Request: fold
Amino acid sequence: MSSSPLREYPLSRIVPFEENVRLFEFDCSNDPFFFQQGQFISVPGENGKSSYFAVASSPARADRFEILVKNMNPLTEGLFRKQVGDTVALQGPLGKGFPLEPYTGMNLLFVGVGTAIAPLRSTLLAALDRRSDFNRIELYFGTLTPNHIYFGEEMAGWHEKGATVHITVTYPDETWDSHSGFVQEILRQCPDPLHQTVVYLCGMKEMVEDTIGVLKGRMVPESLILQNI
Reply:
């Protein structure tokens, strides 16, 4: 996808989120990593193929960045064997990202599921850094179970800075007392008006297609439904 040179960064932090998902933080203090919210990196594998991971952290810092990784193939298995201090070769940043500047004064709506929250978190953090530039900011996040709520401890802080967070789980347990079901269905039932709203959308193909249908049904122009790929 890109002819940009490989760069090597050491891992400075590894955070287990649940059994098959980890947050990896890279130390870029010796080689600043400048990126736009919503962009991603490429990590080459031994078979000549690469895996792609959205940057999950705020672009306000170039001395570090984070990715959220689900262990699902030989390359991610290799990443999961890494320890703090080990280096990872990668290319990036890649992709068009999620622009904010054209939408000053509008409502921002973030919609995603599972580990696709990574680029949404990056963009949400960038938007909260300039909160007064936007009107309503909302996140709709869908996940499998209450144990799969990534960045859950941060969400109260997002609320305090002016974002409204809606979480829905597909398989609730006895501890869950909020929304359950698919995120696009929760969005369909949401009473908030969606005029003057730009949507940042990320997730699996079927969910994205269904959500686009819901948004169009609620009169959101396709030009204001953004994806980072």
Observations:
- Helices lie at 74-80, 117-128, 155-160, 183-189, 205-217.
- The longest helix spans residues 205-217.
- The mean pLDDT is 92.
- DSSP finds five helices and twelve strands in the chain.
